[in-house]
Amino acid sequence: MSQELSGTTIIMSGGSRGIGLAIAIRAARAGANIALIAKTDQPDPRLAGTIHTAAAEMEKAGGQALPIVGDIRDDQTIATAVEKTVAQFGGIDVVVNNASVLNLSPTADLDPKRYDLMQDVNVRGTFMLTKAAIPHLLASPNPKVLTLSPPINLEPRWLAGHPAYTMAKYGMTLAALGFAHELGPKGVSSTCLWPATLVATDAIGNLPGGDKMVAVSRRPEIVADAAYEILSTPGQSLNGRTIIDEDLLRSRGVEDFAPYSMTGKDEGLAPDLFIG
């Protein structure tokens, strides 16, 4: 079993399932400690897994897990999570801003509460979790912030369909780029990561027509492998970059992407919403 991240402590928002869980399991296989902040304490018939089943999978993979039930929108939850993580593992080396709400409603149809939810989880959650971890990141020998958000593209087609969701995801990217410039001179490397294609998650599968979208998607493991490459890259060579998973993996020698596809074929895949 590889142990390239042995002793590295990661605090992650979300992670009960989907891309976050895949990233956590990949890091656990490399020997990392992972603290998860998520709300899914009890099973949901629409969603696979809970924070507790996720923690069990991480420990089975070879890492140590600390499940923390709570809402990333709550400042006390964040403060307590940071305190518990440091108390159990001795510090924080990596923040993974994974928690995100997806709502593709056009402006006229979007309920104000749904708008607030996206802004609070996606943008505020990213900002406040990173903020709370800064003192511990600065004490780490190789501190990193990884944010799951897309490259910023202001072409009208990316703005027209779902402005509120675009704003929320671009807000995450702006926060991450801000951290890169603000904290980079202090040794903290902040990077964004985004998939080239749709990824088969419950968030996609539960949308209208989700089954067809899943069929033209890749598995979350492709994002997890790219995240591992970022987290295991020493220093700040990736600071301030918005990286596409496939591009990074190709640059690291991966040639066969068929195993990542839901169909086992690297063809007919749907590009992600922010990729064209």
UniProtKB/TrEMBL annotation:
Record's subcellular location: Peroxisome
| SUPFAM superfamilies, A to Z | NAD(P)-binding Rossmann-fold domains
Keyword terms, alphabetized:
NADP, Oxidoreductase, Peroxisome
MF terms (GO), sorted A to Z: oxidoreductase activity
User: Chief localization class?
Assistant: other
Where would I find the Ketoreductase domain in this sequence? 8-197
State the Pfam families in the record: adh_short
The superkingdom of the source organism is: Bacteria
Output the SMART domains linked to this UniProt entry. PKS_KR
> Member of which family?
Belongs to the short-chain dehydrogenases/reductases (SDR) family.
> What is the name listed in the Swiss-Prot or TrEMBL entry for this protein?
NAD(P)-dependent oxidoreductase
